[in-house]
Structure formats: C-alpha cells, structure tokens
Amino acid sequence: MESFRVPVLTAIFAAVVLAGLTFGMSMYSQNGTMPMAGPAGSVLPPNFTASLPANFRGMTPYKVTLVVLNVPWNSTGTQPAFYELKDDGLVGAYNVSLPVNTLIQLTIATFDTPSSTPPPTQYANVTGVVGGNILVVNGTISLNGPMNVSVGQWVSSVPLDSIAHTFTISQYGVNIPLIGTSVEVAYLYLNGTGVSQYQCMVPCGTGPSKFGGAMSTPGWMTGTVKVYAPSQAPQQQGANATNASTSVQSPLSSDSSSTTVLLGIIVALVIVFVLFFVYRK
Ligand SMILES: [Cu+2]
Questions:
Q1: Cα separation of 177 and 164, whole Å?
Q2: Quick check: is 217 in a domain?
Q3: How far is 264 from 275, CA to CA, in rounded Å?
Q4: Total domains present in the chain
C-alpha cells in the first residue's frame, strides 16, 4: 500500500499545483494591464462596450477599419488620405460601404499630427454615434502639445488643438474628431439606405482656404458613403460578411475557457481522491 500511496499523492499534488496555476493565470489575464491596440490591432479594453446603450451591448458588430496616412500628393509635397483596411490590405477610401440598421464598429487609426488650422469648434464634438462617445484606444503625445485625453477613455469631445482630421458624414449627423497619432473606436447605427459623402472638416488641403487638394479629392479627405441593405451587399462585402460573424474579442470568452479547464482539473482531482480511498482498503 505504501508503494501505491506515493504516486497517488504525487498526482494529487500535481493536480493542485496545475489548478492553482490555471486559476492564477485567468485572474492575471483579467486584471493584468489593459491591452492597447497597435495601429492595426483589435484588442480593446475589457470594458469597451460598457458605455454603449444596453440594447446594443450583446450585438456582434460589423467591423470597419479606416487609416489616415500622409502620402505623396505630388513631387513636392504630401497630403492626408483615408484608407480602408480590407482583407487584401489598405485601399483608398473612395467608397466606404456600410450596412443599414446594423451595429458598426468603426476603428480609425490616424497617422498624422494635429493640424495648425483647427476646424470650426463644433467639429471637436462627437455626434451621431451610438452612446454619444468614442473610445480613445491608443495614442501618443502629439507634436503640438499634450493630447489631454486619456487613453482608454470614452469621450464626447476632444481638445481642438489635438485634432488632426475629422470623419464627418453630415447626412447622418456623424462627426468623429480624429486626435493626432491615435486609434479611436466609434460605434455607428445608420438608419436609412443611400449614397452620401464623408468629408474631413479640418482645413488640411491646399490653396488659400486649404479646402483644395486632398480636401476636395475623392479617396483622400472625402469620399462616398454607401449605406446598403443586406440584400444589396456589394461584392467586396463578402469578405466582411465573415468578419461580421466573427464575434468581438470579449474578455468573457477567454475567462470561460479557463473556467472549463479549471472544472476539468477539479473533476480529475475528485476521481483521483475516490480511486485513492477505494484502493487504500
Ligand atoms: Cu483632413
């Protein structure tokens, strides 16, 4: 009996240590430092949907990612441009297609610094988004001064001098001020199909008014927004249909998988105990 007891006790000890480690790891992943998204990242803070109105929280959003880059306009200078991140990479945002009556998770990464010519003050306000706030996921200090907006915060407006560009769809009342060198997430829910325009409202183009150049050229600081019914889904949305069915990474999903592992270990532990007492006699 003594020779049998040693391996059993060893097994029990190993099971307890494993269970402890698993539990500890799940606690760490829950309470560890807040994950921050890189430019193309999609890791959001654990509470990222907490400020959405209750009826939107359980929805799986349709995801769209826009990127603002300064790119060569001609041989002597650059101009800012919106790109959309597709399965095949970045494409010029000549046309942004969005599904009607659907929760849309819009991530915008702005690789540009705050403008020295800010937009009219009203465009510092967030309007037309679900919950009235946008989430500042990531950001670095702008060249023109401190950003003044905490990373990981939901905000309904941003300081004028932090704004590099705006993503504005006037027809839908949407205005999203884009903080220089930041990643922001906004949720949209657009009622009514149709074709409209998006436009940056920061004078960031060329000419005396700075509304020329990129500001008046589709695929740069303006473009078409097509809000479509699911039956009118354009060809390119095939890839995004897969995207839409992929649920947002939720801290709950990783927790539930480690809970399953923990339960398995406890069950194994009970079996080992039962076997131990049965064979001891
Ligand atoms: Cu702009």
A1: 8
A2: yes
A3: 17
A4: 2
Q: Is the pTM of this model over 0.85?
A: no
32 lies in the same domain as 165: no
263 plus 190 within the same structural domain = no
**71 CA distance to ligand 1 middle (Å):** 13
Read off φ and ψ for residue 220, nearest 5 degrees: -115, -95
Which residues constitute the domain of residue 181?
Answer: 54-245
Q: Of 16, 92, 45, which is closest to residue 249 (Cα–Cα)?
A: 45
Polymer length of the chain? 281
Within a domain: residue 46?
A: no
- pLDDT greater than 80 at residue 246: no
- Residues 263, 146 share a domain: no
Burial class (CB in 10 A: 0-12, 13-18, 19+), 169: buried
Centroid of ligand 1 to alpha carbon of 177 (angstroms): 10
The answer to the question of residue 197 being in a domain is yes
Residues around ion ligand 1, judged by CB within 5 A, are 165, 200, 202, 204, 221
Phi, psi of 249 (to 5 degrees): -60, 115
Q: Is 21 exposed, middle or buried (0-12, 13-18, 19+ CB in 10 A)?
A: exposed
Q: What's the pLDDT at 234? A: 64
